[in-house]
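Data availability (excerpt). The following record was deposited with the supplementary files.
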Amino acid sequence: MLVMKHLLRTILFTLCLLAFAPRALAGAPTTYVVQAGDTLFSIAVRYDTSVAAIKQLNKLNGDIILVGQKLLIPTEDAPLVTSSSYIVQPGDTLLQIALKHGTTMRALMQLNDLPNPNLISIGQPLAIPASATVAKPGLLIDPPAARQGGTLLIETTRPDIASISGTFNGAKLTFARASGYWYALTGISRCAKVGNASLTITTTNSAGQASTETAAVDIASTAFVVQALTLPPSVSAILSDQASINREAAQLATIVRNYSPARLWSGVFRQPVYGAISSMFGTRRSYNEGPVAACGHEGTDFAMPGGTPIYAPARGKVVFAGLTQVRGNLTVIDHGVGVFSAYYHQSEIDVKVGQMVEPGMLLGKIGTTGLSTGNHLHWSMWVNGEYIDPMEWTKRIFP
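Predicted structure:
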């Protein structure tokens, strides 16, 4: 019986190694267009490859794919850097395996499609993720190369953490505790300086001993487009009132710098509306043939008819709902752990401060109030007080 168990475990280990073995270094990958009902797993099975291989080749940060999206599929001759494998041993926990291999529980769960970190069994083969995003054992920075307007996830998996704090690029980080790890989210300013940014993390154990470690994160530039707008005199008057603009921006910044310790959302954000995008996040604008702004557009604009319903993209709490001079009828939602979203220029607001909203709940209707040249929705998001590209949150799961 013991011989049979040993033989079975050996077979499983061999199969796992074969599943994640490197391919030959020649040839080109196949291109596949995502169809309705496809998942990364079903595509991987169809082409005799792995989810990890597809994600790596296409530089996917999560498991979300869209109908019509083109994916590169590794073939037997396509170059591939792959994961290693591990067989769960008696007494193993997912946390111990993560620490042993210099990764995180979250990374293991995503790669192996584990719904529950406690449901692993002796003899189970696990794929161990490549350490491209692991700065040091137990410290994960995702993505490893950030971009202007992007969101950065920082996870630490350390035994015996009583408290944790940190800074990124001079800004304070606040960490939240999850199952087996701590995490912080921070936004990369659309005006961030390109190059290395410093990450510092200090942990204190139950005995009161503190430890500090640092890492460098590369910030890459984003190619924001330039847009020239002509404003009517009534709107130009608002734009010329710089004191009011600054005052409103400061009030809004105070709201979105608050930190609620509970994460209220789950999964990806849905779009608040589905229609033509008239201005992307970060677009650098020139008004009435004036100079191009040094810092780009605060959000994503959807050009749609007035009165079009606006729906909540994720669960959260309404923290502002009212008329402002620049942003018109404005609603701001706190989604927890430093994540906020806002909806500008509404013709009608249908929620109240203090109200909890769920994904798909009516927030208001599209309009052209405030500094606006026509009916549209401006959708903004902040992470740790920084404006970020909201569309990234419709394609990637945080944390």
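Summary of structural features: DSSP finds seven helices and 27 strands in the chain.
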